[in-house]
C-alpha cells in the first residue's frame, strides 16, 4: 500500500472528513483491521486565511509547497491539498515535489465528464468561484462550462463556509439557503452541482439538493485510495 500525503488544516473540519473517508474506504476494500497509510501536514488555517484575504498567493504557494516537501520526505507517495480553494496554487505545489499531486479539480472534472454533465453549478468559497482557476481548468481539460451563483448568493455561500462550517457550525437555515441557491442554479440551466468546498458536505447531502450533486471531498478521497491501492479509479461511482 502506498502512503497518502495530506496537506490539511484548511479547515481541520474537512480534513477530519478526509481522514475518515479514506480509512473507511480502505477498510471496505481490504477488510478486517486494514487502514490507510497516511502522512499529514496540518497547517494553521488562520495563517492561510490571512494570506488569502491579503491576496498574498505567492506566500501561500510557498507555505503549501514546503508542506508538500515535508510530506515527501516523510515517505508520502502522493500529495493531496485537502481544500478546493488552495488549488489556486496547485501548480506551484506540484512542481515542488517529485511525487504526484492528486488534483481535486481533475478528479471532479473527470467524474462530471463520465456522468455526461456539462454545466455544473459551483458552490465554493468566493476565491474558488471568482478567481477562475477552477472554471478555466474544467473548460480546458473537460469542455465543461462551470456556472457560478449571482453575487449575492456567492457572498452567502462564502459566509456559510467561513463563518459556520469551518468552525464546525451546521445550521438548518443555512442549509435551506444553500438549497435555494441550487434551485436557482437549476432554473438558470445548471445540470448538476459541484460541492466545491470540502466543508459543504457537512451541510448538504443527496437528500437535500435539487440537482445531481458531486461531492469534491468524496471524489478526492476516493482518488487517493485508488492511487494508494494501485487501482483503476472509477470516477462514475463518486457522484453523490
TrEMBL record:
Q: Which SUPFAM superfamilies match?
A: Aspartate/glutamate racemase
Does the record bear Isomerase in its keywords? Answer: yes
Molecular function (GO) terms for this protein are: amino-acid racemase activity
Q: Which UniProt keywords apply?
A: Isomerase
Recorded hits in InterPro entries, A to Z, give: Asp/Glu/hydantoin_racemase, Asp/Glu_race, Asp_race
- Family the UniProt entry places it in: Belongs to the aspartate/glutamate racemases family.
Name of the protein in question = Aspartate racemase
Which species?
Phyllobacterium brassicacearum
